[in-house]
Amino acid sequence: MSRVWTIVRKEVIHILRDPRTLGLVIVMPVMMLVLLGYAVAADVENIPLAVADLSKTDASRRFVERFEASGYFKITYAVESEDQVIQLIDEGIVRSGLYIPEDFGRKITTGDSSPFVVYVDGSNPSVAQTAQLAAETISQSASQEILVRQLSGAAAGRGIRLPIDARWRFLYNPNMRRMDFMIPGLVAVILQIQTLLLTAFAIVREREQGTLEQLIVTPIKSWELMLGKILPYVVVALLNVAMTVGVGYFWFGVEVAGSIVLLMILSLVFLLGSLGLGVLISNISRTQMQAMYLASFIMMPSFILSGLLYPRDNMPWLAYFAGYLLPVTYFLEIVRGIMLKGIGLNYLWPWVWPMVLFSLVVFFLSVILFRKRIS
Questions:
Q1: Contact 98, 164 (CB under 8 A)
Q2: How far apart are the C-alpha atoms of 310 and 7, rounded to whole Å?
Q3: Deepest in the core among 43, 151, 250, 343, taking most CB within 10 A?
């Protein structure tokens, strides 16, 4: 036991001499528990809703108020046409839309059936099913209330009809196949994980193997070294993009509704940012263990906070804004927009420019943090 105790003391000394790794081991599980705990526990509610109320009557206003009062919907836009509702869903600004025709209030007053249309973004089956069930419940509740009023005045001799007629329009993935939703997301997350693992050990491995000194004595500049570390992996990663999209199509039957060329170009931007993030981690780390912990701290939230499994709109503000620190959050919206919705750059631009900015910032941070000297 005395020999065992000697080894224990030796390992404790090693741990205490590496406070950075010790801090990562202690702090990161707590931070991940807080972030992921909020995200995983989130229920589907406050679904962003765009409303086009062309009736503008007391009946239509009361009907719209029912949607927001239910807690399942949050009215974020009031528009003037059905086309504007569809455009907001195309851009990913809202997940559902409510179109109330001009004669809605008049038909309720006269006892006729009053149709309305609910548009649902079917690219996320979980949100789509919740929106459908909630809207059906709201419609039935409103119909029952109107029927009671009609029955109380039934002495007029009019026939009783269903007062509110709900009609559904599922945009993108009308069959609500969960595979169509998951495959594009998995493509994005798998690429994020692979690019991090490819480059997270790039600089720290040179330092631990003692080959960093050879780079230091060369005339190469910092940005040249960083770019040289990234470019070889870009080719490998682009090949993986083509392979994963191909497997998604031929094996799982998930077609690319939009432009494949645009998908590859924007994938290149995403890959540059993700590879740069891996190099940045490698610059910050002193050992490969530190690099592994930092990479894991990004990979795990990429599954939860990016919107792959759970809708980000329902997350608390801490988890919601933490998702913006992950490049995969932007690329997830882009790849789903191209593969499922078939939309172009004009609709994707709100997600493209932050991803471009992220890639540039990460690359320059890698250059700034790298010092051509032994530290």
A1: no
A2: 46
A3: 343
